[in-house]
Amino acid sequence: MQSDVDNKTEAMLPLDDNPKFDFSSTSISRSEPGSAALEIKGSMFTLPVLRLQSVDLALIAEDLSQRLAQHLRFFKHAPVVIELDHLDDQASVLDLPALCVLLRQVHLVPVGVRQASPEQAEAAIAAGLAVLKGGSSATPRSASSLPSSQEKTTTAPSNVEMAAPKPVALPAKVISQPVRSGQKIYARGGDLVVLAAVNAGAEVIADGNIHIYAPLRGRALAGVLGDNSASIFTQSMEAELVAVAGNYQVFEDGSAKDIYSRAVRIFLDGTHIKIIPLGQ
Amino acid sequence: MSKVVVVTSGKGGVGKTTTSASFATGLAIRGHKTAVIDFDVGLRNLDLIMGCERRVVYDFVNVINGEASLKQALIRDKAHNNLFILPASQTRDKDAFTIEGVGKVIDELRESFDYIICDSPAGIEKGAMMALYFADEALIVTNPEVSSVRDSDRILGLLGAKSKRAEEDLEPIKEHLVVTRYSASRVETGEMLTIEDIQELLGIDLLAVIPESGAVLHASNAGVPVVRDEVSNSGQAYQDLVSRFLGEDLPMRFLDTKKKSFLKRLFGT
């Protein structure tokens, strides 16, 4: 019997050492009567998913504590979603309130369940958990049974597999039309290849590298989920702004004369953007 | 097969309505049955430039709302009996436009016209989006300056994303670049972008360059599309535009400042 916790990217927020809810997007105003006390906004978060494959709380507790010891900093007070669809017929036996208590004891914050049957959903609501819709597993069930060379598993039969986000190479997104002013292209989870110009006022974004085989006149943001090793390549550097892993540089008139309209690679040197001509 | 052509630019004051009027008139002169629609609700100008403002009874919005038939609203041009104008409403607002309503009018026009020219308002609001939605081809009107080129780039992006052809994944709208208010002397002094600059920035085929000319203003005030002014550079450039649009291969004219000598003008070069 196995259960594993895997960290799937449900959203495009950068992973944080200590993921927490972002209250900064909720503005509270209580100045004038009649004005709204709050604003409701949508926001996306990256949440670890606890994929249960056992209902035995003792087993879960044992493996959780082992796994968490390795990733203590990352998972301390982390909100987690409990995924139920791998339990099959045992699901009805699961004691959700007890599981919540157990999770809180190891400093996890259960926030919801997903893949819940109607009965489970009812139980979850009673236990004060949210029922999350959709978001079926990106990694199919077979993925967890693949020989995991990446994880150094303990010798004891493992009930909980604590996986760091697995780097999965997705095919690059290829754009062959010009990216025009006001357009925004995002390559989720991989590289972006643009075969035509990225014009002023346009924005190209990728989780990985960005390759532009034409002039870059607009904005390019590589490694937006925090990949420090991401680069931007362009045939002709005329950008308004470039950014790698959140570190950005803007180009006002004349600030980049030595590399202007040259073929360059843009990458991160520490926390500084570095731009070097290609072919040298 | 009828064709819907939108004349658009993003930026205002670049010469969309002038181009629409001359383009439509030019097509009519070549014998094509043509309708030109003013999408600029609330700020209608096309009827002035076409010289029919006093004959406007019903307008585009009346037709969409079923208050008048298309036949009642279409105004026949005085000089060309195969040219019709569908004026915009001066008093309504653009909320009258719906895809269904506009689509119905366009479909009805397609039945009896060779070309339907949609004169877009400036901006990227509803009127402009409606004008480009049904287009098969587009004339992108640009002045040789950066803000106009930037706005045209924006409109090209919208043509590729928000038009019917884009939404239904059909063959993309055919885009033509029309550079207006071009002044060769100001290009030489670096005040204006060159044609090459504009083409490189926008990356679409050049259909015509219309030189800056007093004839355009004069023609607008007189209510006669400048294409009918055969003496002026602008009039000739619009005639070239129509010819090229219809498939003729003509060299670009009026691109440089070199004044030809009297003899050269007389005998050609």
Salient structural properties:
heterodimer, A: about 280 residues, Alpha-Beta Plaits, Pectate Lyase C-like, disordered N terminus, B: about 270 residues, alpha/beta, eight-stranded mixed sheet, 13 helices, 8 strands, about 15% strand, globular
Offer a quick outline of the entry:
The complex is a heterodimer of chains A (280) and B (269). By secondary structure, chain A is of the alpha/beta class.
Care to describe what's here?
The complex is a heterodimer of chains A (280) and B (269). Among the domains of chain A are: 49-132, 2-Layer Sandwich (Alpha-Beta Plaits); 173-277, Pectate Lyase C-like (3 Solenoid). Chain A contains 5 helices and 17 strands. Chain A has helices at residues 57-70, 72-75, 96-105, 118-126, 141-145; strands spanning 3-7, 48-51, 78-83, 108-114, 130-132, 160-163, 173-175, 184-187, 192-194, 203-206, 210-216, 219-222, 232-237, 241-244, 247-250, 264-269, 272-277. A 6-stranded mixed beta sheet of chain A has the order 5-4-3-2-1-6. In chain A, strands 7-9-11-13-16-17 form a 6-stranded mixed beta sheet, with no helix packed on it. In chain A, strands 8-10-12-14-15 form a 5-stranded mixed beta sheet, with no helix packed on it. The longest helix of chain A is centred in the first third of the chain and has 14 residues, at 57-70. Chain A is elongated. Mean pLDDT of chain A is 75; it is low at 1-33 and 137-161. With 269 residues, chain B is α/β, with parallel strands linked by helices. Chain B is built from 13 helices and 8 strands. An 8-stranded mixed beta sheet of chain B has the order 3-4-2-5-1-6-7-8, with helices on both faces. The A-B interface holds A 177-183, 196-197, 199-202, 217 and B 150-151, 153-154, 156-158, 160-161, 201, 203.
